[in-house]
């Protein structure tokens, strides 16, 4: 069928006839009414409020009457078209739409098979390339490719190359870092989760720094604990009991017992030999050689009375 013949199938035999002869006269009448109202110069006050409302009500009433006439004309003109459109949709457009929908289903079925075949080839290429690069922590689905018929298989394979090459490059970057094996292993493990090189390295560096701080704290804590244990386990010095002795020096004055300094560690007492003879010449041991003097430091722990007794004992023996 020729286009000229097609255009004659639906034609308008008679144009709608709408008489607008009275519109001009109505327009002039409305214009005169509005001019007489002199709205621009009216002052709105409490006294003029009633008059303003009456003017507005009058204009609304006129407008409502004209609107009813316009809608009546539209309805009369639209009715023939509405009747025509209902017949057209029922006998023509619905049949064509039904047929085209069936054709679309058949076309989509074939195109879906073609897309699945293309996706299968691209996925197989992805798996082979990933295996050759020893990349086992990503899948084809991670790429998020949307396979469409208009994009060639070659184009999709190029996208696979870019995706896997970047991952391989990132892994190589981690492996050549001047870090120990533990750091690299943790960085690769983190990268496998994020596939973000910079983010992975930042996370591991922060983790390493935090670990070093905590390790230093633990070492200091262990040192403090050992020092405390050694202090508690240190053997206590023997508390000496001062024996009652008699002062052999003649005309010696009683020993004055002084209050000791509060000091947990006893200071060594210097030895000052007395110029007065302790023994008389008639003493049978007078000729015994003088013993060798030795020096030592002892730590004494005891009550105040015991410390005083020790001090008195030492002084009484010129120690």
The number of distinct helices, counting runs of at least 4 residues, comes to 7
Helical coverage, percent range: 55-70%
> What radius of gyration results from the CA coordinates?
58 Å
| Uncertain stretches | 245-253, 262-286
Biggest sheet record: none
Strand content: under 5%
Record field, number of beta strands: 0
How would you sum up the global shape? elongated
| H-E order | HHHHHHH
Structural class by SSE content = mainly alpha
Mean pLDDT: 82
Terminal CA distance reads: 142 Å
Description of the structure:
- The protein is mainly alpha-helical and 319 residues long.
- 60% of the residues lie in helices and 0% in strands.
- The chain has seven helices and no strands.
- It has helices at residues 3-6, 21-37, 49-132, 153-175, 181-194, 197-233, 304-316.
- Helix 3 packs across helix 4 (153-175).
- The model is unreliable at 245-253 and 262-286 (pLDDT under 50).
